[in-house]
Amino acid sequence: MLKLVAIQAAAVRISPHIKTTAVLTSLALDQLTQAKIFFKAEHQQVTGAFKARGATNAVFSLAPAVAAGGVVTHSSGNHAAAVAYAARLRGIPAHVVMPTTVSSTKRANVLAEGGIIVDCEPTLDSREQTAARVLATQGGTLIHPYNDLDVMAGQGTAALELLAAHPDLDIVLCPVGGGGLLSGTAVAVKTLHPHIRVFGAEPAAADDAAQSFRTKTLVRPTTPPVTIADGLRGALGDLTFAEIIAHVDDIVTVDEPQIVAATRLLIQCFTQSIEPSSAVPLAALLDHSIPDIQGKRIGIILTGGNVMA
User: Fold this and answer.
1) Which CATH fold topology does 52-142 show?
2) What pLDDT was estimated at residue 309?
């Protein structure tokens, strides 16, 4: 099980390599939601997403002899760039398995960090099978995009920073795909402030996490989800599922038009590049999917700014 001490250790380990991102506010969005929202600006993180936290913690947790063999991962984009970034800092190779359907922006980010891209089909099975083949032929260590305790601990450091700046929150929301961010966030928040409600937000078109949460059984998608929130197409792993069941209050879903509208609002209010996956929690607030938010202080983690192209 993931513990707060591991998240705190991750914060120390990755501090030389990541940004302490800003917390943004918007009067317009406060008025729309009738709440006070604090947006943790992880779209301003190195590599353009929170994924740098978990990947850097995992890569720098490797013993020198193990790290020398390089790392392998599979990802739809942001984790791919983050692993390539961390591997470059450590001076080791990174083989990155990516679906052929990912945006050109996210592929370019991986190449810019020195990652070696290996193409696969846009299914989770293809990603995992291709990564296994790369490991068999190239060697190295798998850095799973979410189902890894070191990755989960690193992702939880964003919540530590948010709580350090605003310890008096009532609710914390973040998107959920594979669950690395939600699990790390939930452990950090519930350990430090058990009264804070923690919610995951997910596209209705990729609702395996919500289904898993409702049934208390890990649900694996049978077909690739189709959603504009391309960073949330992953499925929960057994490690992330366990933490979510133990610490999360609920997982809510929103439809594609709501995600698009929330994305536009965020870009208009902050005049910054913010990807649709980041907008899913705001969409849930605007859709009234989260109960009892009027007058509440709400933290949202804006996960990335690498827009589709």
Assistant:
1) Rossmann fold (3.40.50)
2) 41
